[in-house]
């Protein structure tokens, strides 16, 4: 079953499979299934054509996938262009919602990089090189 360009896994329950769509979470799934008048415990492979059409019709009211991604990207672009604090945080690749960065924020900042400390072997090589050039 394909919805909004995404193939849903056939072995999963409908309520779990719908969360594979960008913009659909566990709380939205309940609303979609209620609007489609379906049980969430059904497997995707057991859905009939009529059930699939009802799900698609229920999802038309919610922004998903491409439309939602475009809207979010536009919002971030607007923040960057306005020069707001949140926009600057987005530009610098740092957390924008007040989280601490001294000890956390590894997913935003990337892998740890030690600055200022050098290994003993490298220090010894630099010392030897300095003595030979000083002779």
Brief description of this entry?
With 135 residues, the protein is mainly α.
Provide structural commentary.
With 135 residues, the chain is mainly α. The chain has two domains: 2-62, Helicase, Ruva Protein, domain 3; 66-109, Ribosomal protein S13/S18, C-terminal domain (30s ribosomal protein s13, domain 2, Irregular). 53% of the residues lie in helices and 3% in strands. The protein has helices at residues 14-17, 26-36, 49-59, 65-82, 85-92, 106-109, 120-134; strands at 2-3, 6-7. It has a two-stranded antiparallel ribbon. Strand 1 (2-3) and strand 2 (6-7) form a beta hairpin. The N and C termini lie far apart (77 Å).
What labels would you give this structure?
elongated; 135 residues; 3% strand; 30s ribosomal protein s13, domain 2; Helicase, Ruva Protein, domain 3; mainly alpha; two-stranded antiparallel sheet
The appropriate CATH architecture of the largest domain is: Orthogonal Bundle
Q: Uncertain runs with pLDDT below 50, 5 residues or more?
A: none
> How many helical elements?
7
Structural class: mainly alpha
How much β-strand is present in the residues?
under 5%
């Amino acid at each position: 079953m394909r919805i909004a360009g995404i193939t849903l896994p056939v072995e999963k329950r409908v309520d779990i499979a719908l969360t594979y769509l960008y913009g659909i979470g566990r709380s939205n799934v309940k609303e979609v299934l209620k609007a489609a008048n379906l049980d969430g415990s059904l497997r995707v492979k057991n859905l009939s054509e009529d059930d699939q059409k009802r799900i698609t019709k229920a999802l038309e009211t919610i922004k998903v996938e491409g439309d939602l991604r475009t809207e979010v990207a536009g919002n971030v672009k607007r923040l960057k262009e306005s020069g707001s604090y949140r926009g600057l945080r987005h530009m610098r690749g740092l957390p924008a919602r007040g989280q601490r960065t001294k000890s956390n924020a590894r997913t935003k900042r990337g892998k740890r990089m030690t600055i200022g400390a050098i290994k003993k072997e490298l220090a010894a090589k630099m010392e030897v090189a300095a003595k030979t050039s000083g002779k």
